Amino acid sequence: MVQVLSSRVLVRPADPERSRAFYGGALGLQIYREFGTGPERGTVYFLGGGFLEVSGRSAGPATGTLQLWLQVADVGAAHAELSARGVEVLRPPVTEPWGLIEMWIADPDGHRIVLIEVPADHPLRHRP
């Protein structure tokens, strides 16, 4: 059995400075640590119980295989705040048939990010 002590998602953006401006500025993620220097430096952001590392540089476009799932307390407030910051909303908050409220955005490279609110009466909030 592998005991995972920590984890992070690694993103290799086409333009690291643009991606740092998006994740740190527009999304307001807090920095856990930085390493290296200059525009190629790595930045690791807190993602609730995990981390997101923006480092290196991609030689090609995003493939669409990476998607981030971020649970927030109030997706309506996140929608208003991110819209005010100029983040393009691909799909505004919608209550899905499975009961979660979901909103979709994308980072500058096109990686899709879903922001999720779990309503107070949703089964995910209750243990049998």
Automatic annotation (TrEMBL):
Entry-linked Pfam families: Glyoxalase (PF00903)
Record InterPro entries: Glyas_Bleomycin-R_OHBP_Dase, Glyas_Fos-R_dOase_dom, VOC_core
Name by which UniProt lists this protein: VOC family protein
Domain VOC: 4-118
